[in-house]
Specification:
Elements lengths: L4 E5 L5 E6 L3 E7 L5 E6 L4 E2 L2 E2 L14 E5 L6 E5 L1 E2 L2 E2 L3 E6 L4 E6 L3 E2 L2 E2 L3 E6 L5 E2 L1
Antiparallel strand pairs: 1-2, 3-4, 4-7, 5-6, 7-8, 9-10, 11-12, 12-15, 13-14, 15-16
């Protein structure tokens, strides 16, 4: 999350940065199309090597999270989902692909000073054309 990169680690331990990313990349999974799907979170700050603002405890000006796909050959990334239906993503996580080429994922929501999102499980397509709960 802190490095803001997608990094390939070789069997010998060498590291190669595949893509520079924005936000706080929270996880990754290779999709059926060969791209790497990254779930991203915003408003994560680090202090002295520790997570000082947990991803679920954030300011009211939250800009939200998103899911993007990275071409592993070129490093080009594309944001494919910022919302699921009419719900803005806050902290997407735990993505798994199904046999139809779509994916299920969780969004645990966020806790702000006077507001709390509820988490949910969502389904989305890899081409970004549809999504829902």
């Amino acid at each position: 999350m802190r490095g803001k990169t997608l990094t390939r680690v070789q069997p010998n331990g060498d590291k190669q940065v595949v893509a520079q990313l924005a936000g706080g990349p929270n996880g990754a999974a290779i999709g059926p199309d060969g791209r790497c799907y990254i779930w991203q979170q915003r408003r994560i700050r680090f202090h002295e090597g520790r997570l000082s603002d947990a991803p679920w405890a954030c300011p009211a000006r939250l800009r939200g999270g998103w899911i993007e796909a990275v071409d592993l050959k070129t490093g080009q990334s594309e944001v494919i989902h910022r919302t699921c239906g009419d719900i803005q993503l806050r902290g997407p996580n735990d993505l798994v692909f199904d046999q139809h080429g779509g994916f299920w994922f969780t969004d645990h929501g966020k806790i702000m000073a006077r507001q709390r999102d509820r988490g949910a499980v969502f389904y989305a397509s890899i081409d970004g054309s549809s999504s829902g709960r």
